[in-house]
Amino acid sequence: MNIPFTKMHGLGNNYIYIDGFKVDLKEEHLPNLAKDVSNVFTGIGSDGLILMLPSDFADVRMRIFNKDGSEAMNCGNGLRCVAKLAYDLGYVKTQTFKVEAKSGVVDAEVELEQGLVKNVTIDMGQPILERSQIPMKTLTGAEEDHVIQEPFLVGEEDLYATAVSMGNPHVVFYVDDIADAPIQTVGPAVTDDQRFPEGVNVEFVEVVNDSEINFRVWERGSGITQACGTGACAAVVSSVLNDYVPKGDEVTVHLDGGDLMITWKEDGHVMMKGPAVTVASGEYYWQKI
C-alpha cells in the first residue's frame, strides 16, 4: 500500500502526518504502521505517527501514536503541526479554529508568513493537579491531593517530584544543571514506575530566572525527544506551584529543539506558542497489508 505522508516537526519533535481526510486506514493497522514509519533504519524515522482527521466536535481531529505503537492522549507539538497542516491544506479557512485530541478539544490560532503558517498558539486548557486524575499512586497509602515536591526515590537517586496532567501525565524534577540531568537512567525508570499506572512523561527542569527555564524530557512511549509541548506546559505549571516563576507571566522554555513560550494565565488556562515546520512529503510504501 502506498501511503501519502507529510513529515513535520515542532522544535525537533518530529512525526509522520497522514491526511485522514483523503487516506482511510484500518484501526488494526495503526499501531504497527506507527512503529514501522518511526523506524529510522527501515522506515522514515520519527517520534511517532499522527493522523489528521475530520471531527464531529471541532474543525479537525488528531490521533497520536508513539513510536512503540501506543496511542497518546495529547501532544502539544503535534497540535501545532496539525493546526498548520489543516490551514495550509485549506481544511480550515480562518486563523482561529478548534482541534480535537483524545484528551479533548482545544482552541488554535495560527500566525501567517507569506500565506503559510509559521507559529501557532494553542489554548491547552486547565492543568489537572489532583493526584487521582493524573493518575499517580503512592507506595505508602498516605496521599496529599496535589503532588508538589514530594520525595521520590529512584534507585539511589533521592528526588522530589511535582506531578501535573495536561491531558497526559507528567512528572517534573528540578536539577541544578540541565546538562547533568539523569535523563538516560531516571527517565525510563520513572516512566514505568508502579506509582504511575498509565506511565508518565518525565521532565527535568533547571530554573534560569523567573521568566526562563531549561528543559529536557523522556517521553512515555518514545524516549528522549527534542521537545514536548505538553511537557513544557507542565513544567511551567510546576514552576508556578513551586514559586520559581509567577503565574500570569510568559515563560520561555528552552528545549533541546528550540524555545516555546508558555503562560499559565490567571483564569487557569495554559497558553503555548511556538513554531510548526513542514519537512518533506512523499509516499511510504507499506508492504504489510
Automatic annotation (TrEMBL):
Record's keyword annotation contains Isomerase: yes
What GO MF annotations does this protein's record show?
diaminopimelate epimerase activity
What gene is this protein a product of?
Answer: dapF
| Active-site positions on this chain | C75, C228
UniProt EC number = 5.1.1.7
Q: Which reaction does it catalyse?
A: (2S,6S)-2,6-diaminopimelate = meso-2,6-diaminopimelate
Looking at the UniProt record, the site noted as Could be important to modulate the pK values of the two catalytic cysteine residues sits at H170, E219
| Top-rank taxon | Bacteria
Residues at which substrate binds: N13, N66, G76, N77, N168, N201, E219, R220, G229, T230
Main location (coarse class): cytoplasm
Main EC class of this protein?
A: isomerase
Pathway membership:
Amino-acid biosynthesis; L-lysine biosynthesis via DAP pathway; DL-2,6-diaminopimelate from LL-2,6-diaminopimelate: step 1/1
Q: Does the keyword Isomerase apply?
A: yes
Protein location = Cytoplasm
Annotated Pfam families: DAP_epimerase (PF01678)
**Protein name per UniProt:** Diaminopimelate epimerase
Protein family per UniProt: Belongs to the diaminopimelate epimerase family.
- Which UniProt keyword terms apply here? Amino-acid biosynthesis, Cytoplasm, Isomerase, Lysine biosynthesis
